[in-house]
Every structure is written in C-alpha cells, then in structure tokens.
Amino acid sequence: METTGTVRRETAERRRDTLDRLVAERDVWVSTAHPDHGPHQVPLWFLWDGLAVWMCTDATSATVRNVRQEPRVRLALPDSFDVVLLQGEAECFPDREVPGDAAEAFAGKFGWDPRKEEGPFVYVRVVPKSVHAWRGVPELRGRIIMRDGTWLE
C-alpha cells in the first residue's frame, strides 16, 4: 500500500468525500454484538438516503437478533486505506412495515426487492451519531467528522 505523499484533507473535504462514497458504494461491514453470544460482523448491501444507512437481511439473521438486544452498531466501508467508520443505533423494520420510499430506493439501487421474497426480511436503519474518516497516517488527527449526530466543519 502506498501511503507516502498523502495530502491531508480538511474536514469539509473529508465530509464531501465520505458523502460521495455513501451514495456510490454498495457494501458495508456491519458490526453488532449480543450480550450472550458476543460480537458478530457481516457485509451487507446498503443504501444511503442522505440521513441514514438502510440495509436488509433475513429476519432470522444474527444481525437482526443482535440489534434487537443491543441496538448500538458500527458500520465500515470496505477500504483499509480510505477508512470510513459510522456508529449509531439501529432500528428494525419488518419488510411489511418499512417506509415505502426507503424500500423503493433500496430496490432501485440493487434491482432486488426483499418485500417480494417468500421468507421474511428486516430492513435495518442506522442514523449515524459519529463518523470517522481518514486516509493513512497523515489524516489520523482530525478523523472525527461527525460528533453527536452533527457534521463538523
């Protein structure tokens, strides 16, 4: 990995870059934990609606079971050099109760509508409370770009 020559971005540029990635990317790593079973991490497709991350998974998944016991989650975009970490509380929506605009946007992005599947699915919504973003060591300082749900300038 090439890290030399990395130019340190200011907070506003990190925010713009992060928002661009949230719109463009397909996969996010979702980390949850259960009080009895410990940590669990999986990649899921996601949609960014401008305020929250929407994911969808089988209603019987460990992710859904964990979120119902402990709603605090961490999300990570899959790039170890251009790091984006989001933290927030997850909320579950059974596929028959998900807001229509979120479900339609999700189906539009992926060409797959979980509401039309035979088995039950759950949409998981996470509104970030904090976001960290950095590219290599030069950006470790100042990596917090959202705190307490507010984007920093």
How would you describe what is shown here?
The protein is of the alpha+beta class. It has one domain (11-147): Roll (Pnp Oxidase, Chain A). Helix content is 22%, strand content 42%. Strands 1-2-3-6-5-4 form a six-stranded antiparallel beta barrel. A hairpin with a 3-residue loop joins strand 1 and strand 2. The longest helix is centred in the N-terminal third of the chain and has 14 residues, at 11-24. The protein is globular.
- The number of domains is 1
Order of helices and strands: HEEEHEEHEEE
Rg measurement, Å:
16 Å
* Net shape: globular
Strand fraction: 35-45%
Helix fraction, binned, reads: 10-25%
Structure, briefly:
By secondary structure, this protein is α+β, with helices and mostly antiparallel strands.
Topology:
Layout (H helix, E strand, L loop, with lengths): L10 H14 L2 E8 L3 E11 L4 E6 L3 H8 L2 E5 L5 E13 L5 H11 L10 E15 L8 E4 L2 E2 L2
Antiparallel strand pairs: 1-2, 1-4, 2-3, 3-6, 4-5, 5-6, 6-7, 7-8
List keywords for this structure.
single chain, 153 residues, alpha+beta, Pnp Oxidase, Chain A, six-stranded antiparallel barrel, 3 helices, 8 strands, 22% helix, globular
